[in-house]
Structure formats: C-alpha cells, structure tokens
Amino acid sequence: SQQGEEDPQALSIQEGENATMNCSYKTSINNLQWYRQNSGRGLVHLILIRSNEREKHSGRLRVTLDTSKKSSSLLITASRAADTASYFCAPSGGYNKLIFGAGTRLAVHP
Amino acid sequence: DTAVSQTPKYLVTQMGNDKSIKCEQNLGHDTMYWYKQDSKKFLKIMFSYNNKELIINETVPNRFSPKSPDKAHLNLHINSLELGDSAVYFCASSPGAIDTQYFGPGTRLTVL
C-alpha cells in the first residue's frame, strides 16, 4: 500500500519558529501530496510534489522529496498560531487512491 | 461559492435506520471520492467514481452503497446503521485520477 507515515505524531512550538514534519512511504509514487486539517474541518490541499521533483515552495511552505529514501518533509517557516492543525502526507501511485496516515498534530503557541 | 458541498453537516440517528449523505462539486471534476474518518483521525478511502463509474471500492460493508447520478454528484446511502458507523464522512473530488483532491466540510454521523 502507499500509506504515508508522518513523524512526529505531535509537535508543539512557539510562534515564529519553524516546524518540520516528515513522511515516509513504501512503494513507488507518481506524486506526493500534503494536506492540512483544522479541527472539525475537511482537508485542505497544500502542495503536490511530483516524483521527478526534489523541492517545491509555496509561500512559507517548503516540501522536499527523496524518492531514493522514500521520504518527504514539510517545513513551515515563521509559524503562526493559525498554522495549528493536523498535517497529512499522501503518496499517490496509479489511480489516486490516497491513503492517509495518522498525521502530525501541530500546535503553535502565541 | 462552495466547491465541494455535503449535506447534512450533522446526522444523528438510531441503529438500524437507513440514511443518505449527499455530495456535490461545482468544479467540473471527473473524479469523486468518499472517505471515512474515525475517532482516531485515520482517514480511509471508501469509494471513488470517475465519470460516474466506480473505480475504487475498498473493503466496505455492502450496507454502504454509493450512487453517482452525474459526475457532479456522489451520494452515499447507508442501510441498517450500526454503532461502528459513527464517524465523520468526507466527500472529495479531483480533476483526474492522480490529481489534487478537494475535500468537502464533512458530515458527522452519530449512531445511537
């Protein structure tokens, strides 16, 4: 299966600090996607990185992908209280059967 | 404008009842999905339809039956509800089969 496994399970930081979350997976992929879920809400897509890309940026977000190690990381720079949420990675291969892990719960304290 | 909408937002019902959850997307996407998120926050895919045709059907009890009247709608009907069906159900859509998915706000189902 292509389930992503996020690490750490929970992360608590102060506003202004950077947050790094890691994702590992087991099979080959077409792309890997990161999503955010605020409490009680649906998932919101953050970034899609293709298997032939190594790094991608979107605002304060930076995603890396190492297909040789089957791992990805999500870096949020200069975090804000509004970044408090759960973050999920979803490796995708073949039909878009995203299998989500348990996510990383990020808490950003003012 | 709501991209992916679900109704109802909350659903509280007795065991044994039959209920439906509706999903509509106005993004012109070809592919739609249903996910179940349990109390431990694991999000599991249940079904996927591409242009009204079923393409993913995970190991889901046959009490759950998706119906896609057109490619903008994917409804989920659940027969003989059980306590273990209590969860948040999310609908999602994507332009094609390997693209970014757009999620609805979720339907919290509570079976008493």
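Residues 36 and 89 of chain B are 5 Å apart (CA to CA).
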